[in-house]
Amino acid sequence: MKEIEQTLEFIVEVEKLKAVLRKTKPVGLERRENSAEHSWHVCLAALMLKDYANEPVDIDRVIKMLLIHDLGEIDAGDTIVYASETAQQKTAEAEGVKRVLAMLPDNRGDEYFKLWCEFEAGESAESRYARAIDRVPPLLHNLRGGGHAWKENDIPKEKVFAVNSRIGDGSRELWQVIEGKLQQAVSSGILK
Amino acid sequence: MKEIEQTLEFIVEVEKLKAVLRKTKPVGLERRENSAEHSWHVCLAALMLKDYANEPVDIDRVIKMLLIHDLGEIDAGDTIVYASETAQQKTAEAEGVKRVLAMLPDNRGDEYFKLWCEFEAGESAESRYARAIDRVPPLLHNLRGGGHAWKENDIPKEKVFAVNSRIGDGSRELWQVIEGKLQQAVSSGILK
């Protein structure tokens, strides 16, 4: 019973991710996306695009990774992908994930902290694919939303291409399609 | 390439779930929850409570079920769990799920439509557990949030106990803990 109580406390705590705002707006909405709904969206995207991963992936591990990949933002906040990653920010996120997962009974969180570290390192087939998918919805938001977050944050096209080319590490075919869309965005003037 | 394009259209379409508002407010927030962030929350809750399922469950199937369980609401909207289910509402949801999943290439959606039907029927171990978990966060919202959705929708305590006792079909231990919390809510006067 005590273990269930502890897990319910964890469930309430992680809900704070619903208040962490990201930089892009979902297609059709005039508000910024939060990290909880983003997490759902990337899980579903990963599931439906799994056949295009470069390497065989265990999709169930990918989904678990994506379910927890942003938990560190409860304490550390969201950082735009185009910002240079600072060691301070990375440490704050790792500490945040660790704190939240430590709320689970019987060190059950340890397994998920390892999974989070694997995602961050991006060195396994699953993490390469998960990190590729993590980039897709915000790009679609910008592509369908006049490049709003690129403009608001002064992100030049060179940076958009360079940072997102990591999609190709997880799925070359997906990057080929997205790269084409980014080129169209340059042609139409929403990406400069 | 065409298949990837189609899948990206699906990814943009399902994003509409971020605009479907539910009846409860997340703990600590002054706005109603949307069905996309709810979907993430129940996936994570299911993962962390899996050891308390009455029967052995394939947690990966449970998570996939919960990722898609609300897709029908894009067309049909959210209905409070305490409303009597009408055949019309159920049909609208099933048609909605079918429409959205049909956007996927190569009839890939068929497998997920079956999974959605399994969830709705609630007759397998996985669906019993998934349906139990689906009830947990809204109860926590009410319990931590002064019973706001019970009050706003005039839900009497008899109905709250009766409808949520289905949690016991998925996890007796979890229902025991939640039932205790509901009794406390009656004692403290937030559930009448």
TrEMBL record, chains A, B:
PANTHER family: 5'-DEOXYNUCLEOTIDASE HDDC2. One of its GO terms (molecular function) is hydrolase activity. The keyword Repeat does not apply. SUPFAM superfamilies: HD-domain/PDEase-like. Gene3D superfamilies: Hypothetical protein af1432 (1.10.3210.10). Residues 14-175 form the HD domain. Pfam families: HD_3. It comes from the Bacteria. The keyword Metal-binding applies. Keywords: Hydrolase, Metal-binding. This is HD family hydrolase. It comes from Microbulbifer taiwanensis.
